[in-house]
Amino acid sequence: MSAGRPTVRRVYGRVFGVAVVGVQGRLVTVEAHVGRGLPAVVLSGLPGAAVQDARERVRPAVESSGLTWPLRRVVVNLSPAGLRKEGPGFDLPIALGVLAASAQLPPRLLDGYAFFGELSLKGEIVPTAGVLPVAMAAAARGLRGVVVPEGNAAEAALVEGLHAVGAPTLAAVAAFLRGGWKPSPAPVAQASPDDVNAADVDFADVRGQGEARRALEVAAAGGHNVLMMGPPGSGKTMLARRLPTILPAMVRQEALEVTRLHSVAGLLSGGGLIQFRPFRAPHHSISVPGLLGGGSGFLRPGEVSLAHHGVLFLDEFTEFRRDAVEGLRQPMEDGRIVVARASGAVEFPARFALVAACNPCPCGYQGDGRRLCRCLPARVVTYRERLSGPLLDRIDIHQTVPRLSREELMGSMAGEPSKPIRDRVEEARERQRFRLRRTPWTSNAQMSGKVGRRDARLTTDAEGVLSLAVDRLQLSGRGFDRALKVARTVADLAGSEQVDGGHMLEALRYRAADPHEEAVRAG
Amino acid sequence: MSDRPSSKEQVSYPPGFAATRRDRQALVVLLHLASLTPQRLGLVARNHPTAWACLRAVRRGDSASQGDVDRARVLDPAAAARAVRACGARLVAVGEPGYPPELLHLHDPPAGLFVRGRDLSELTPRVAMVGARTCSPTGREVAKEIASGLAQAGVCVVSGGARGIDGAAHEGALHGGGATIAVLGCGIDMVYPKEHAELLAEIASRFAVVSEYPPGTPAEPFRFPARNRIVAALSRALVVVEGARGSGSMITAHHALDVGREVFAVPGSPTSALSQVPLDLIREGATMIRGSEDLLRDLGLAHLVESAGTLGTASADAGLGADPSVAPDERAVWRMLGAPLTLDQLALLTGMPLPAVLSAIARLELRGSVRQVGGRYERRLSAG
Fold this sequence. Notes:
The complex is a heterodimer.
Chain A: E1 12-21, E2 24-35, E3 40-44, H1 49-64, E4 73-79, H2 91-101, E5 113-115, E6 118-119, E7 125-126, H3 131-140, E8 145-149, H4 153-156, E9 163-167, H5 170-177, H6 210-222, E10 226-229, H7 236-241, H8 252-264, E11 279-280, H9 288-292, E12 293-294, E13 300-301, H10 303-306, E14 311-314, H11 322-326, H12 329-334, E15 336-341, E16 344-349, E17 353-358, H13 377-385, E18 397-400, H14 406-411, H15 418-435, H16 449-455, H17 460-472, H18 477-493, H19 501-509, H20 518-522
Parallel strand pairs in A: 3-4, 5-8, 8-9, 10-17, 10-18, 11-14, 14-17
Antiparallel strand pairs in A: 1-2, 2-4, 6-7, 12-13, 15-16
Helix pairs in contact in A: 1-2, 6-15, 6-18, 16-18, 17-19, 18-19
Chain B: H1 21-31, H2 38-47, H3 51-59, H4 66-74, H5 77-86, E1 90-93, E2 112-117, E3 126-130, H6 137-152, E4 156-159, H7 165-175, E5 180-183, H8 197-206, E6 208-211, H9 223-234, E7 237-240, H10 248-258, E8 262-265, H11 276-284, E9 287-288, H12 292-299, H13 328-336, H14 343-350, H15 354-367, E10 370-373, E11 376-379
Parallel strand pairs in B: 3-4, 3-7, 4-5, 5-6, 7-8, 8-9
Antiparallel strand pairs in B: 1-2, 2-6, 10-11
């Protein structure tokens, strides 16, 4: 408090704002000092570009709200000074800090709330991305409540034990702090696990493709990643879209994580908790930051994080930039991605099920029969060889999807709905969680090769099948481990303690195709 | 038929056209000129009765494109002839004893043929096999089986050395312990396609590789139909295995009919793009064959072979035999696989649950009896 002379007018005000770093909210103290000097606003404490802009927005907003902007020298400081503050959410706490410093607000409630929101020149509070982490940060610091844009109130209300105030205007916030306005309670979104089927897609929509449906069931049950190969129009996208509907329903903690990521990305459209597992299908022209997260200034979660706890579908997998695909390795290993910047590293959660899809050859019709493939055999081999490498070692299930004729589609059985499949998947997951209770893992796909071999519990028949496969199919060491894990999942789905020959055989069907196999070369 | 050559006038070369060394060297140069087709060369030869005289006429600007006239002026006949010898080939000119007389059945026989390997007169009787370059795995198997059957009956298999059915025919003939001739659509010294380097080398060293194009002529698509007329003419019959509409197989079949050769075709599913040429040919009157047994019987050679195969009539359990390790599930699935089927279709037809079909299929795959092509399962006709 540098203004040494006592005066009837207060000169100092302090409120809480929140900076969003990655998916974490960090409480920021916004101090304002109104002192002698020519009218000006000085902002200190490492403000980003959008926060710098607040200087110009705040004064018109205050004046439009029937409040007075002090025509003196205003200094605003954001603390801790070492943290870079990004985003437009600081408009509201800066305005309130100045109003407090000019004695227009009673200090009574200011200390109990965090404030977050962008102001328009008319003094309205504009909905802003990242409200959920803001509310979580406020709750973590033991504040009573949080004042956020009215359009984001439902989001803030997801945090239990926190008073979420959705305010339409700056004037309303001033009135609230003076005790003259009571906000209506924010709508609380009801989360119920059975709502998963309310998604507008279901496996019952898929006719035929029983083999691919089964492959996805096994993938869902064991947490395995999938590569689907088939000509255009075979239904790869349709199948992948339905994978989230057979994954176990999200628990509240998972739903909050997903909602928080979508909140930071500005993808929440007013609603509350996201209850459906996300399905993200970025186009193959996506940039590395777009896929993995990043961007200049404010770091955004990439598609891998938006697919957290859901499905990341990469159609035309061979067309993705090499460096983007290579970047998938870390999240596939760790379930998170670290985006490094000069200002420090930011971590986003990114635990997703990968479904990659591609054509069998450059023209797309190899092996289709009804349409002629005109690719040279050598080009097909080159194309298939692009599908190998370290990332492919993390894809346990490879499935070829045939293109069905209209007659075949009409003649095939209507598909089983998602609900019973999901029930089987949840049971299989439960068995895995129990078996792996003494390990860091929860699903078969995560098991190390060593644990996979230990837990396989093969019958003699299964061992015979496996050794035959090593012989006949030239199964590699990694292929061997993958087959064991998938066989374990097949057995879990069947409720069997042991992996028998049938389970092993089915798992072998999901092995990766050899790019040099005869069917590829024959054209 | 639009596929057929338009000009039908019979080309003939005067006696003694390439009798002297100088004429033979000149002929090599003439064969270098793409625009000097047999028809045009025949016309020039009416007024200039030797190859050397023709070359002089061409150098003056007769009958060839300007580019080829320039080439004819630049090319040294002696050097061109040396290049032929350098790659281990020899020129067989029309009128010489080594020139295959069957080629004269063509209305546009080449004036000369380059040969690497044995004299063609030693490699008889001959049957040609052609088909799609981008064939199916089943097509490959069928072609190999037929070629192998022909080889066992002592028939030399003639084909174009191309990818797909051509290559399978050559391989099948070698596998059956018989002879085979590759007719190239590029220069006699060229290796095309690259994947066939070993195959072509083996054929050249043991049997014969021929071409009407001198060394250095690149592989270009417009030469392939011309090559096909030689494939057809060299043989007493032609077998077409797979071909999509508008492909070279149809052209070859029409060349064969033009020179009065019998045409055989292996049928396929009417829904498959690769069945279109054989099915069209059968409708036009070609003889339908299911495998080497049918073919050899029609050719009157069946008595020469002990066990020829007939692929299409495989009985319910054929191919699996009485192996006691084959489970009932596997047999049930195998029985349905007369045509390529998806897993759903197999489950529907056998009444088995999907996971059971999956493991039965996987075991059949391990046995090498079944394979997956484009998401459908089909029988392998031969193991391996």
